[in-house]
Amino acid sequence: MDISIIKLNVGGSHFTTTRQTLMKIPYFTKQIPSFIDRDGELFGYLLKYIRGDQHAHYLPKDRQIRELLAVEAEFYQMGHLKTKLLQQTSKMPLQMIYFNHSEEKHIGRIMPNQFSKLKHTSFSLSLNENTKCLLEWTLGNAAGHFAIVINGQQTGIIASNGFSIVSDQSINYTYASMVTIRKVLQLPAGDHHISLVASSFDPVLPYEASGPVIIQVQRIPEIYFEN
């Protein structure tokens, strides 16, 4: 049995393990480089998973980390783990905690160079515990730069050049006759007033926006993996 001690530097994070353990990761069956230019924290999850006899309890519960870990699993040629991570993520249940649908209505005038409040896009939410939420607005015939305001505080500008984008803050913007704005936020327990504001794409001309408006808020629960 080969119990040679191996030292690795993964993205600046240092690990010490055995050759026997590394051989369980297909990537290392052909080479064991001293430095790997990948994410060290994510590699730590992979190493714990292997050391724990590939038990699911060693995998992270956070959805975003699992998605990133699936990318690393592909790099390290761990196809079975990648499939397991993606399957579990896709099965994550979302619980609706707020829903509102208004018929065709005038949303408002989206002004250039300044953020304007939009009609029918505000709502109140009461939470009895800290909750990770997926906030989603679907607007008819609107175009611009959007921002979400929670209890009077703006969470950040959602800028777009007219194409579909997904940012590192889990914001999605789609330029079309129907616009969907999504954002994942960790909200503390208590009462919250949430609204959407917007500014026109055009630096000079305002934009007249109309409905309908659909607002959905879904709870993202913490999910434990099953074997």
Could you please describe the fold and organization of this structure?
There is one protein chain. Helix content is about 20%, strand content about 40%. It is α+β, with helices and mostly antiparallel strands. Strand 9 and strand 10 form a beta hairpin. Helix 2 (about 40-50) crosses helix 3 and helix 3 (about 65-75) packs antiparallel against helix 4. The radius of gyration is 23 Å and the shape is elongated. The two termini are about 30 Å apart.
Strands ordered across the widest β-sheet: 4-16-8-13-12-11
Q: What letter string, H or E per element, gives the SSE order?
A: EEHEHHHEEEEEEEEEEEEE
Mean pLDDT: 80
Q: Find the count of extended strands (DSSP E, 2+ residues).
A: 16
Q: What is the helix content?
A: 10-25%
SS strand fraction: 35-45%
Low-confidence stretches: 160-176, 223-227
Oligomer: single chain
The chain-level structural class is alpha+beta
SSE blueprint and pairings:
Blueprint: E1 5-10, E2 13-18, H1 19-22, E3 35-36, H2 40-51, H3 63-75, H4 79-90, E4 95-102, E5 106-110, E6 116-117, E7 123-127, E8 131-140, E9 145-150, E10 153-158, E11 165-166, E12 172-173, E13 178-187, E14 190-199, E15 207-210, E16 213-219
Parallel strand pairs: 1-3
Antiparallel strand pairs: 1-2, 4-16, 5-15, 6-14, 7-14, 8-13, 8-16, 9-10, 9-14, 11-12, 12-13
